[in-house]
Amino acid sequence: MPMTLDTVSTNKSHGGVQGVYRHQSRATGTDMTFSVFVPPHADGAKLPVIWYLSGLTCTHANVTDKGEFRKACAELGLIFVAPDTSPRGEGVPDDPEGAYDFGLGAGFYVNATQEPFARHYRMRDYIENELPEIVAGNFPADMARQGITGHSMGGHGALTISLRNPGRFRSTSAFAPIVAPAQCPWGQKALGGYLGDDRSTWKDYDACALIEGGARLPDLLIDQGDADANLELQLKTDLLRQACASAGMAATIRMQPGYDHSYPFVSTFMADHLRWHAERLG
Amino acid sequence: MPMTLDTVSTNKSHGGVQGVYRHQSRATGTDMTFSVFVPPHADGAKLPVIWYLSGLTCTHANVTDKGEFRKACAELGLIFVAPDTSPRGEGVPDDPEGAYDFGLGAGFYVNATQEPFARHYRMRDYIENELPEIVAGNFPADMARQGITGHSMGGHGALTISLRNPGRFRSTSAFAPIVAPAQCPWGQKALGGYLGDDRSTWKDYDACALIEGGARLPDLLIDQGDADANLELQLKTDLLRQACASAGMAATIRMQPGYDHSYPFVSTFMADHLRWHAERLG
Q: What is the value of ipTM here, to two decimals?
């Protein structure tokens, strides 16, 4: 066990265990809370891991409560990890006006370089390096078989983390992701605030820019509701479609008629995504 | 439409519509909020209705968020109705000490006779009479095909409402119900507080007492976690088992190893219950 993990709660569900855990993070310099579902499994088995990154305003709890992933994970034998979306607690700076789209609940999966955010807002480090060590050390996880997904800001996180770490994730998907933060108000505010005005530093955190810069994934599954109020201004799914087409990168991008941006949308397609990941995780 | 219904929210989910609605209740003299999931269906179709009554501290939102019922309801063609657990708002008296197990969030599905609760705490009337009219008038509901279920205090509600209204519900189930409120602290506090000290008035609100008094259901499905911290003191599942055995009433009462009292338990067995109801609702 690489570091101390406090168990906040465990509940048996769908034959497995839904747990919530807390630890002191060296990446963020704060306590961090995350959830892990471990499906029923044979003693000594090592199971593939799905990372689910959440959207603006969320903690681990939103998808843990509303994601409807446990039945499919139990059937498919997948561990499901849901981290928080930002550092929190004493001394962690927030948006100066307390806005929902920056600061607490809105870490955008970056390593901030700008003050006062640079010390604690290191969600890239946390998700890419620290939390995988903890998951590997404390759960029956086969780290050679990882998939990643996420919702909205978390879809942005899933796409960019996977694109930056070729080969680490055998499968990548997203629900209603922000595909080009450099080209939408949410992303411009976040990347400007955390990274500063030099847009060359933003490219690592923009899925479309990464693909345009040569990063590739073997394939991709995206579901996007066509009644999503954020589609035109913030999510801009078509930019990802164009980037993948230009790059010759396989991508299944499905527009789902009548669906909005909420968990009733995410939960509808969750089992589909998990099956898609499981096929690729063996 | 028998009365005005305000739509609080609708979200497409699993091919149907998850809605939340508010109306002025004549039964409780307050605004009441409830949720309804209508699955995908042919134009003009009338669908069977499942009533889900929630437990202590809950509103409609707990099961709506965490119940994992929409996929099964969509597959089985069931409307799912989730009422609140008490009147709320200006002038509605609460537990004098603000306890979680009486007053707001803890209506126990009774018509209160004691002051200051008698005016607003009329959840029996609300669930048995008023809300069915609203559901029948506003949704594609076949009121000849109704089933009822609930969790904990709501399991008590489901059992007692069904037992008191023979023939109305073709199917009755419960998750971790309070089976004999007259014999447990939660129930004694609630029935004493709402109905007074004359225990003869409690019998209508006690599933075991109703069965002992001659009420019958064709059958019954109960799931109860054996790791439920409330089992021994409050829920007392064995009393229902004994009452059904003495009465010769069919009842499938399943002890589920390792499960507790939470929604991770309820959601695990939700689809099972919905299938069981659907078989009986045709």
A: 0.95
